[in-house]
Design a protein that fits this description.
Layout: H1 4-11, H2 15-25, H3 27-31, H4 36-45, H5 56-71, H6 77-86, E1 97-99, E2 105-107, H7 113-125, E3 132-137, H8 143-160, E4 170-175, H9 178-183, H10 186-189, H11 198-207, E5 209-213, E6 229-234, E7 241-242, H12 249-254, E8 286-287, H13 290-295, E9 301-306, H14 314-318, H15 328-342, E10 347-354, E11 358-359, E12 362-363, E13 367-371, H16 373-378, E14 384-390, H17 395-410, E15 421-425, H18 429-446, E16 454-457, H19 466-473, E17 484-487, E18 500-505, H20 512-520, E19 532-538, H21 539-553, H22 557-561, E20 568-572, E21 580-594, E22 616-619, E23 630-633, H23 645-656, H24 660-668, H25 673-683, H26 686-700, E24 701-715, E25 727-731, E26 736-738, E27 756-758, H27 762-772, E28 777-782, E29 795-798, E30 805-808, E31 812-816, E32 821-827, H28 835-850, E33 853-859
Parallel strand pairs: 3-10, 3-13, 4-6, 4-9, 5-6, 9-10, 14-19, 15-17, 15-18, 16-17, 18-19, 32-33
Antiparallel strand pairs: 1-2, 7-8, 11-12, 20-25, 21-24, 22-23, 26-27, 28-31, 29-30, 31-32
Amino acid sequence: MASKATQSTAAEFPFYQYLRLFYDANEAAIRRHYSRLSLKFLDHNDPDDARTFLRRPQYEALEIYIFLKEFGNNRHLWELFDDWYHEKNGFEGRGRTSIGTKGQMGLFEELTADSYKDAFKTLRSFGQLYPNYIYALTMGLGKTVLMATSIFYEFLLANKYPQDPRFCHNALVFAPDKTVLQSLKEIQTFDKSKVVPPEYVNWLNTHLQFHFLDDTGLSLNVIDRSKYNIIISNTQKVILKKQHKDKTAGEQLFAAEGEAYKAKSTTDGYGDLYNFGAEVEDEADLLQNQRFAKLTRLEQLGIYVDEAHHAFGTKLAADMGLNVTKTSLRLTINELAARLKEAGTRVVACFNYTGTPYIGNRLLPEVVYTYGLKDAIDNRYLKKVTIDAYENIKEKEFIRTVVKDFWKKHKGKKYEGMRPKIAFFASTIEELTQKVRPALEEVLSDLNIPTSKILVNVGDEKITTNDDLREFIYLDTADSKKQFILLVGKGKEGWNCRSLFGVALHRKPDSRIFVLQATMRCLRSITGEQQTGSVYLSKDNLDILNDELEKNFRLSVQAIQDSGEKGKPVEVRVVPPPVKITLKRISKLQKLEEKPIRNGIDLELEKVDTDRYRIIHQAYSGLDLTKTPYKEDVSYIREQREFSEITVVAEIARYLNKPPLFIRDVLQSTVDGVETILKAVNKFNELLYDHIIPRLFSEFYSLKEYKSEEDYTVELVKAPDAEDGCYRVTAKEDLIADVKAADYREFKAKSFHLDHYCFDSTPEKDFFWKCLHDGSVDKVWFTGMLTHGQSEFSIAYIDPISNTLRHYYPDFLVRKKDGTHLIVEIKGDNKVDDAVVKAKQDFATQLATGSGFTYRMIKGSEAKQGLAAA
């Protein structure tokens, strides 16, 4: 019998990491399985292009989403795991790599048969009628936008391939409670052009139908069997619940909702993230409401669950290996899948979006992508955080200390035009009104801060007016003057306020997870520079936070505080006058012109080298491979399509976009004749595509090129839009060149179109320093610093992997005293032969040559030589 440790390891087998490794190692081959529309959708959102909208974690999750859809054919995760382990159905030659508990990789270590069986059994036990995938992205990374992007992708593919069962024709979005429900409105208001290729935006705007089931919605009004509906609802609006008592005839007669039932929220009973709803005792007694009935009449339904911890029951937290109990939401989804199957359609898949892949310190089943809290802070997707804890401190003393520290940090400041805010969380309304608010008002008065900056939102209309609610909704705007927010229970998922810079929690709340949720509220990123959120806790709450971080993220408070960018924040200002350069734009037009068709076209089939199509069998006798082998042409074993005159005409017409009757006449008039063509094509199918169709194309069309040139002017840097007139970046202190510093002051006239240059690497700084002291150099500008649209000096190139147009910003522009210009790129020695780097070099050389410039790429190891290395 396997030990408990072995079983635990198997149950937590991180298959999602192996999937990612497989994807990264085989991306080019995997993409060949994708439709053109999928490729276009991915390339449109690739964050390697600085102008795209999605953050890298969102894009990586989208990559896995499309990978599971197109390469995995929307199968259950346990099926993919089985194929991966046995190296079949696309996973052939996947490689031998192991991943340790902390993510480290090891080569040539393989999953044992026993571990495979345990992991497979765990995955299989969670299998449903439908594929179930979990995407775990920490708070603030944009799960709602990712969800919307995925739905838009589904509908575009469903329209393109209406008979394909892999794609969703309708989407049901579940929110666990009203708080998240409000945040999901972003799906409806989101600007689709940010993530959807422009040629498809109008189609989506025309065909999408949104149904938002909020508190006032009494019914779901969708047309049966209709398509492209997005239904956004909190779970209690369609949830299945057991009715414990049959209604009398009178009750049924006068019931306002007919067969509908009153449904409790899955959030009742627990005020935390997991919120395991009331367990349904018996499926036999389930009654359906109108919304549920309507959903069963929609075809190919995709279900999206936000904050999906709510979809898992309490037993799951205790034992990940069992699938005995079900929460109401999971039961509703299962019942919906069963009803749709009876109706001849299906739930395509259930996509769960949550903030952590763990529950009770155990890995959730069916996780396919995760991006953790520490990674999000380290990569500047969230604010950094400082945590201050106080022991044996009274509430009033706590509030005074917190306000003083917060005001010291943020007094008079604005971020993206918005005032910084801090939230004080109380355990109860009574505590807030009788203790917290009076204490806060007294402290603000002592510090000469207007008490009008206080806003209270407790969910009680006697205390929180409609005006207060309106103020709360518009907190994250430049017009909001509120800065001290008093809340009860608003630390839960879904409250988005980027201008929240502080959180204070003194009293120990009833829910332990609430401490973690409230803490994370102030971490959403704001401005281009990584800001810092401040968390103020009592010692008891600090201990709870540490425990919950370990359970949900396998992190500690210390690890979180140590996360984030370690560089120095720098305010970068434009040095007048703005630097402008003149470049030459070369436009080329390739025009396809039809040629007059002549009779008697000679396809020259006899001149085609067909040896490359032949299968040659070589046989050796013994192990001596230096001897001449026996060779035999066995091309007859190849499976070939048998063409007739009709089918070969149709195939050629399909490629050349010409009428079939016209193609037939052309083939009949060729020197070779139809019979010879058919004989050659049926012997080697490749001949049709490699020779005949291209040859006919050249007979039908000629390609003429037209070229024009014009001069245009670009600014090396645009004026910043920020109120304080500067850009903000973070850089290592030893890689900053300040025009006012003693070492650089004398070179102001020779460089510095910005008052600070923040280099990415030491070789860049070394090259710059060498150019400053080079007597042949008139001007040297560092142009590789602002790369997100702040500069017009960029080079367009075609990415060789995705074949899409991208832009990149070269590192330096040098003007020599003889009037010549050089565009210089510094690259690590290991990068100079990279395919993408080569593509950038080719296109930069074309632009430079056309404009009378010279382009040079210099290895990092040679950068100290300056222009001598060029």
